[in-house]
Design goal:
This protein is an alpha/beta fold. The chain has seven helices and eleven strands. The longest helix is centred in the middle third of the chain and has 31 residues.
Length: about 250
């Protein structure tokens, strides 16, 4: 009877754990689900998350983690490096836009016009050049506006080629995804994607539009992607270096 009771105990759905990987102690979040059939690893600004089947063995879990040890440690270091680069919102700050770097220039003037991109500078006029909150809000608003414009242009180009018609294009601020697509045809694209090179923006747009044909990641789905973006595998690998999934 004791054996039956012990075997019927359901493990916790979410746990915080620590493991030694490649000589480095790594804290991670373990999530169990009865819907999963495999073990998946995800690394983002919150660290390492491991998703696994509800009753998967510890031996299988440790095997996967140790097999991916070097990759996990490298990605976590990359994330920490990115997190440590915090914008100060000062004159001379370097800002990414469509794969290039621009310099933020803060000039005295009325705060009633949006930032203007001129050659290699993003010029922002404001009455108080030390108000970092206003500077951040103004630049973020500019980024989002440009993201809408760039994304709409990409969709206008690729949608007819792929014979699809998204119902709506929306901006997202997701921490772990560059894009998503619903069964109702609503495509969401992360506004931060506008900082990336144009070929990566194109790839994410194609990826999400392809879901209007195949709502999955089957072989048929990837054929749809490849037809519009032949070098999608290269783009996909490059995108992974930024630490956010598709």
């Amino acid at each position: 009877m004791f054996s039956k009771l012990r075997n019927s105990i359901t493990p916790p759905a979410v746990e915080q754990r620590i493991i030694q990987l490649a000589g480095t102690p790594v804290t991670y979040t373990l999530k169990r689900s009865s819907k999963r059939r495999s073990i998946g690893l995800r690394i983002d600004d919150r660290g390492l998350t491991v998703n696994m089947p509800l009753r998967a063995s510890e031996k299988w879990l440790n095997s996967v983690l140790n097999e991916k040890a070097d990759w996990v440690v490298e990605k976590l270091v990359n994330w920490e490096t990115k997190k440590s680069v915090v914008l100060q919102w000062l004159d001379g700050e370097k800002l990414a836009f469509r794969g290039d770097m621009f310099t933020l220039r803060l000039l005295p003037g009325l705060f009633n016009t949006p930032p203007q991109l001129h050659r290699e500078e993003l010029i922002l006029h404001l009455t108080d050049e030390t108000d970092k909150v206003k500077i951040e809000k103004a630049v973020t608003k500019w980024y989002r506006h440009e993201a809408e414009r760039v994304f709409q242009e990409c969709v206008a180009h690729y949608a007819p080629l792929m014979s699809v018609a998204p119902r709506q294009i929306k901006l997202s601020s997701a921490l772990t995804q560059w894009g998503s697509c619903t069964s109702k045809g609503v495509v969401r694209l992360n506004w931060q994607l506008v900082k990336m090179p144009l070929h990566l923006i194109d790839y994410v747009v194609v990826h999400e539009l392809a879901h209007l044909v195949e709502m999955n990641h089957s072989a048929a789905f990837w054929r749809v992607v490849e037809a519009a973006c032949p070098d999608y595998e290269k783009c996909r690998a490059e995108l992974r270096s930024y630490g956010i999934s598709e």
